[in-house]
# Entry
Amino acid sequence: MNTGIPLTYFLILAAIMFFVGVYGFLTRRNLITILMSLELILNSVNINFVAFNRYLFPHKLEGFFFSLFIIAVAAAEAAVAIAIIINIYRRFTTINVEDVDTMKY
Amino acid sequence: MINFTYTVSILIIPFLMFILLGLAGHKLKPKLSGLLGTAGLGVITALSYLTAFFYFFRGERIDGAFQKITAYNSTWLQLTDKLHIDMGILIDPISVMMLIVITTVSLMVHIYSLGYMKGEKGFERYYAFLSLFSFSMLGLVLSTNIFQMYIFWELVGISSYLLIGFYYQKPSAVSASKKAFIVTRFADLGFLIGILILSYNTKTFDFITLTDLNGPAISQGSGISFLGLSVITWSMIFVFMGGVGKSAMFPFHIWLPDAMEGPTPVSALIHAATMVVAGVYLVARMFPIYALSAPAALNIVAWVGAFSSLFAAIIACTQTDIKRVLAYSTISQIGYMMLALGVSGYGGHEGLGYMASMFHLFTHAMFKALLFLGAGAIIHAVHSNYMNNMGGLRKYLPITHITFLIACLTIAGIPPFSGFFSKDEILAAAFHHNKVLFAVEYAVAGITAFYMFRLYFNIFWGEEMRYEHTPHEAPATMTIPLIVLAIGAAISGFIPFSHLVTSDGKAFETEIEWGVAVPSVLIGLLGIGIAYIFYAKKSPLPDKLAATFKYTYRWAYNKFYIDEIYLFITKKIIFRYVSEPVAWFDRHIVDGTMNAIASVTQTVSFRIRGFQSGQIQKYVFVFISGIVLLALILIYMWR
# Structure
């Protein structure tokens, strides 16, 4: 089942996705976009899991199951996060993360 | 053998009464709580008389000596196998005698207070405190060991404090109560040191073992010595220091005159008849050790007693507050008792002084309580403490007048009243021991008669004052105790004390020594005569005399400036050179260190609080930077 694409490529792709996600998480001001960046981070991890499973332990399934779990949990997390964002909007009438800074000294 | 276990209830009843009146008193009617307290005391008075009857007339004697009976004993604190503190009840001649004194005077004071304190705010609180005092005082005299005695000793101190400060709105009463507590507490420090030295060397707290003639305290007395005195002597000197404080002997007498700020019945009970003689009782309790093992300490007892009695008698001649005169008179009479113990030997006729001291304690309790209660009736009628505001009261207060006169004759030592007998025994004991002490006490007997009759003539004779309200005789609740105590003061001299209360428990015969008795009566009469000339009618003589001995008079009037000396020592020396540097150290070094730590923390946290910006993305940035850094370090280390 060797398609010829080396493992390193997957890892590089996952790393790029991860840091794109981190960058978006740190620089975006919109909470929805931050949430999207978070999904990118999670998905990069998924790619890692699947790739490692496929290349290193081809007769086992733990990696696949783990990524399935992550997808399910990410869906729940997105639901909760959006609920929080809606509440923040009601409270502050904005979803700009810089304006939500009442939890300080 | 008679079972004395029931005597436990003598302690339990007043304690329960204190709990009841203290916790539920404000819910009861004041009169009911007063009656309850009085009834409880009536029961224990009856029990005490019963005990005395059984002990003295039905009890067993071995070789003709009264035995010391431990009626009840239980281990209270078992600290180690050998060291344990017990609580118990010891029945012996002096404790039974003290039971009679305390319960009689206390019952009279309870009844008297029903009239005297009527309508006062905190009536039930007053009775609760009286019950607490009765409990503590009875516990003190019934103690089986010196540690139990120390506990009750402090308890009487606290009840005295509470009762002196009964009128807590009055600043003078508050400061007097504090003074009494602090002075006696300071003296009790000596007592505690004495207990520790004594019990460390004898390995016991128990009185019966301590005073046993073959016991460790007496047989191995002169073991280690320090500054020329044996360690037992030192411990007895320290124990006596506690007694000096409680009994208001020089130099710890300063609290007693101020303690007169309390209600008058309290002065009668605590500061005349019972608590202040606790010091005498303490010395009497340890007497075999003093007499056989620590004669130097006993000598100190004698001289302190003699000096205090003379000193206080001189001051009493110049005071104008009638209660203060009586307070100084109390100091003087307790000085007599101390002196009598100090000149006594142990056993048989040698122990005459011991017997005389206990005898005088008994009669003094009667007549001094009577004097104070009489003074209370006078103050009740005139609404003043000062004898300048009194005069010619004999028409208005006939019962008080007669009873007061009996008390004055008793204290002046005029036969056939009881004071004559007890004072005669003391003078006889002093005469056989030391002529100087005898001379001092002989002079004091005259001065006593003089100042008591100065008081008497000033109050009941002299010029009649114009009173705003016509003075009237006190109600029956107040006059009945006066009459009862007057009878006690008049006839208690005929009690054959030498058959009942002696140093070794064995009876011995005494007779009145006319060679001592006749001169002492004569000097008493002389004192009365001088007082009559000076004060029975208005006379310029006292003022003239005061002008002649101007300096002496002023010194005595100002109580020889002892209070001022104390103030000087505490304020100018101790406060300035000890307390203030210590306070400075505390404020600047101890507190300063703590404050510095606190302010450094505060400054630093104020500077760095900007990190807590509320900007989530900054937190995440720091977090991720940290992770990356860690990862880099990890990779680097792996290589």
In short: The longest helix of chain B spans residues 562-608.
